[in-house]
C-alpha cells in the first residue's frame, strides 16, 4: 500500500550501463532531477562524452502532488524511444527523475519492435543500477506572529518535530516551516488556535 505523503526518486546518478543488440550500443543513464532546467546541461555532457552517438533519447518526470513529463525520440521513429523509457520510470514508480539512452548505430536496423525493446531494456537496466530512496512530500507553511506568542509557536514546532526553513525576528516574527503533507491540516489547526497567529500555505 502506497503512503500518501511519500514518493520515490533517485539518491544519486546511476552507474552507466551498456546494452548491445545487433552491433548497436545503447548507453543508459539515470539522474535525480529537481527542475527541467537541469535537463539540457546533462544532455550536453552526454553529447561530449559520446560524440559519435546517433541518438540521445530521454524521458523525465517531475512533481509529487501533480506530475509533468516529457519524452524525446531524438530522430528515432515516433514513440520507439522516449515512451519506452518513460514507461520504465512509471514501472519503477519514480518521480523527479531523468533517464537518457544514448545510441551508437551498429549498421543494422532494428525495426520498430527492436527499437522499443532496446530502449525499454536499457532504461530498465539503468534504473536497476540506481539507488532508489523514499522521500516525504512536504508542504511549506508561513507562520506570522508577535513576540508575545513566540514561546507558544516554538513549542508547537518542537513538539511536532517540524523543520524550520527560514526565520526572521524583527518587529513581527516570520517563520517558514516544512510540514509532512499528511500532517498539514492537524498542525495548521494548532497554530491557528493561537489568537494572534497567522498561517499561510505556500505554493510549492
Would you give an account of this structure?
- The protein is of the alpha+beta class and about 200 residues long.
- The protein folds into two domains: about 5-135, 2-Layer Sandwich (Ribosomal Protein S5, domain 2); about 135-200, Alpha-Beta Plaits, CATH 3.30.70.240.
- It has five helices and eleven strands.
- The protein has helices spanning about 40-50, 80-90, 110-130, 150-160, 185-190; strands at about 5-10, 15-20, 25-30, 55-60, 70, 95-105, 130-135, 140-145, 165-170, 175-180, 200.
- The strands form three sheets. The protein has a five-stranded antiparallel β-sheet with strand order 2-3-6-4-5, with helices on both faces. Strands 9-10-8-11 form a four-stranded antiparallel β-sheet, with helices on one face.
- A hairpin with a 5-residue loop joins strand 4 and strand 5 (about 70).
- Helix 2 (about 80-90) packs parallel to helix 3.
- The longest helix has 18 residues, at about 110-130.
- It is elongated and about 75 Å long.
- The model has no long low-confidence stretch (mean pLDDT about 90).
Helices and strands, with pairings:
Elements: E1 6-10, E2 17-21, E3 24-32, H1 39-49, E4 55-62, E5 68-72, H2 82-91, E6 97-104, H3 111-128, E7 132-136, E8 138-145, H4 150-159, E9 163-169, E10 173-180, H5 184-192, E11 198-201
Antiparallel strand pairs: 1-7, 2-3, 3-6, 4-5, 4-6, 8-10, 8-11, 9-10
Helix pairs in contact: 2-3
